[in-house]
Amino acid sequence: MRLITLALAALLLLIQYPLWLGKGGWLRVADFEGQVDVAHKKNAELIARNAKLDSEVRDLKDGTGAVEERARYELSMIKQNEIFIQIVGKGQAEPTVPAAVAAAPVDIAQ
Asked: What is the DSSP letter of 23?
């Protein structure tokens, strides 16, 4: 009787092996589910980034406001007949004046 019990216990363990460690086992499925979750999070981030870039491209194509804003802040450009004033606080070094401002004549009569 003891031999039959040991044989049945061994068979039970052999049946459990593919369930836990086999090709379609629970551990492997849990690992794949984790990989899928990571991929979904990355896709969501990329979708948000693409939406932001798409709106920026549409803004640059359709309106001149975005182009003007970029020219002002990134390239320090000003419009024609516009006066550039910059206030420097105490302890700050004298800022460099953009070439477009230094070369442009200032008309104060307006």
From this structure: T
Q: Which domain holds residue 51?
A: 41-73
Do the Cβ atoms of 80 and 100 come closer than 8 Å? Answer: no
In the numeric block, which tokens belong to residue 89? 């606080």
- Say how many domains are in the chain: 1
| Residue at 63 is within a domain | yes
Three-state SS sequence of 81-92:
CCCCCCCCCCCC
| Stated pTM of the model | 0.46
**Between 96 and 43, whose confidence is greater?**
43
Give the count of beta carbons closer than 10 Å to the beta carbon of residue 66.
16
Q: Give me the pLDDT at residue 95, please.
A: 56
26-62 and 65-75 helices, crossing angle to 10°: 100
Contact residues for 33 (Cβ-Cβ < 8 A; gap 6+): none
Is 46 a domain residue?
A: yes
47 belongs to a structural domain: yes
Q: Is 82 part of any domain? A: no
Average pLDDT over residues 86-95: 74
